[in-house]
Amino acid sequence: MEEDPNGRFLEPVELEKCVICKGGIEPHRNKEGKIIWTHGHHAFPVAEGQCCDDCHNTYVLPKRYGDSKARFKEILVSPDALVIDSDTL
User: Residues 7, 10, 16, 22: what is their CA dihedral angle, to the nearest 10 degrees?
Assistant: First the structure.
């Protein structure tokens, strides 16, 4: 049986597959080693489905950040852009 770094035994779990790298999606655990989440991260806009922590940090977040940064620039330079005042929401 697998142990965590503190020597506690971890319950076995069948890993889901990452849609980007095809590797296993490691479960997220709390401080006691109990599994609290097994589904990884949403891989959009890189792929459809779930991805592992590494692919989320390496591919998905930079793509999301780049897309939002490009959209923000578009709003700043476009005279026709719709700007919503946060006080009206």
Answer: 20
